[in-house]
UniProtKB/TrEMBL annotation:
UniProt name for this protein: Homocysteine S-methyltransferase
Cofactor needs: Zn(2+)
Domain Hcy-binding: 1-292
Species name: Lentzea fradiae
Gene3D superfamilies, alphabetized: Homocysteine-binding-like domain
Keyword entries, A-Z: Metal-binding, Methyltransferase, Transferase, Zinc
Keyword Transferase tagged: yes
Any one GO molecular-function label of the UniProt entry: S-adenosylmethionine-homocysteine S-methyltransferase activity
InterPro entries: BHMT-like, HCY_dom, HCY_dom_sf, Hcy_S-methyltransferase
Cofactor note (record): Binds 1 zinc ion per subunit.
Binding-site residues for Zn(2+), renumbered to this chain: 216, 277-278
Regions annotated as coiled coil: none
Length: 296
């Protein structure tokens, strides 16, 4: 069953933060490549993290390609051919893991924003000073490599501003590969400050987009985003917020406590892909999956 067909029937459970599961397993992700480094050095660790989420009840695995890029791997001495292979392998790892569990599973190839590759928190600000053409040039080869591996969907995620969304959608448009578009937000605006009405409207002429929504945000920002996304697009909504803890970029540490997820309320309001992002591990996804199952 294709993912779009499944979304028309029921809520689909996403996984949690891949980096969270890897760090809980003892892996050091302080490198600028973050979890993408393990595609090169410890692919079995990535597979184990996917498996932990599947066993917790996730139906969709988001790949370890969020911070993977040709420029980033080039700084580590890898050529374009090897980088493309690693990008494709991120999909293959998730796909092979899905075959180890019962039930329908899907693979979402993560397409992180340009700011993630800078490894300086720019994905929470946007406005990189690049033209649309430069952003298209950055995103096209990685999206093409991921598409070659035939994921079920491209997870265009943590996009901080409308300018970058338009650039990515220029690559996605006409590709024939389903995609969801998910913004990083603060309140009712993108991280770059644009209204969500404007942000979601950019998908109107892109047939490949099967869902829109938000991720890597505070849980309290989700309900409002669901309402706007439904009103503007009529598409299924994807939501996977952070735990509620706050990242201190200067101290490079999380602070505060986790907030509760109102997964049942989000689903009732129109969210059809529901999961977690930073600081949500397999245990959190197990609780979320149980709540959604009980709600059915």
């Amino acid at each position: 069953m294709e993912l779009a067909e499944a979304l028309a029937k029921d809520v689909v459970v996403l996984d949690g933060g891949l980096s969270t599961a890897l760090e809980e397993a003892g892996h050091d992700l302080s490198d600028e490549l973050w979890s993408a480094r393990l595609l090169l050095t410890e692919p079995d660790a990535v597979r184990a993290a996917h498996l932990a989420y599947f066993r917790a009840g996730a139906q969709v695995a988001i790949t370890a390609s969020y911070q993977a890029s040709f420029a980033g791997f080039a700084r580590h001495g890898l050529g374009a051919r090897e980088t493309a292979r690693l990008l494709r392998s991120s999909v293959g790892l998730a796909r092979s893991t899905a075959s180890e569990v019962d039930g329908q599973r899907w693979v979402a190839a993560s397409v992180g924003p340009y700011g993630a590759v800078l490894a300086d928190g720019s994905e929470y600000r946007g406005r990189y000073g690049l033209t649309t053409r430069e952003l298209v040039r950055f995103h096209r080869p990685r999206i093409e490599a991921l598409a070659e591996a035939e994921p079920d969907v491209l997870a265009v995620e943590t996009v901080p501003d409308v300018d970058e969304a338009r650039a990515v959608l220029e690559v996605v448009r006409g590709s024939g590969v389903p995609a969801w578009l998910s913004y990083s937000v603060r309140g009712d605006r993108t991280c770059a400050g644009q209204p969500l009405e404007e942000a979601f409207a950019v998908v109107s002429d892109v047939d490949e987009v099967v869902a829109v929504g938000v991720n890597c945000c505070a849980p309290q920002d989700v309900a409002g985003a669901v309402a706007v996304a439904r009103e503007v697009t009529g598409l299924p909504v994807v939501v996977y917020p952070n735990s509620g803890e706050t990242w201190d970029a200067r101290e490079r540490a999380w602070s505060g406590g986790a907030a509760g997820f109102a997964a049942g309320e989000w689903a009732g309001a129109g969210a059809r892909l529901v999961g977690g992002c930073c600081r949500t591990g397999p245990a959190a996804i197990a609780a979320l999956a149980a709540e959604l199952t009980a709600g059915r």
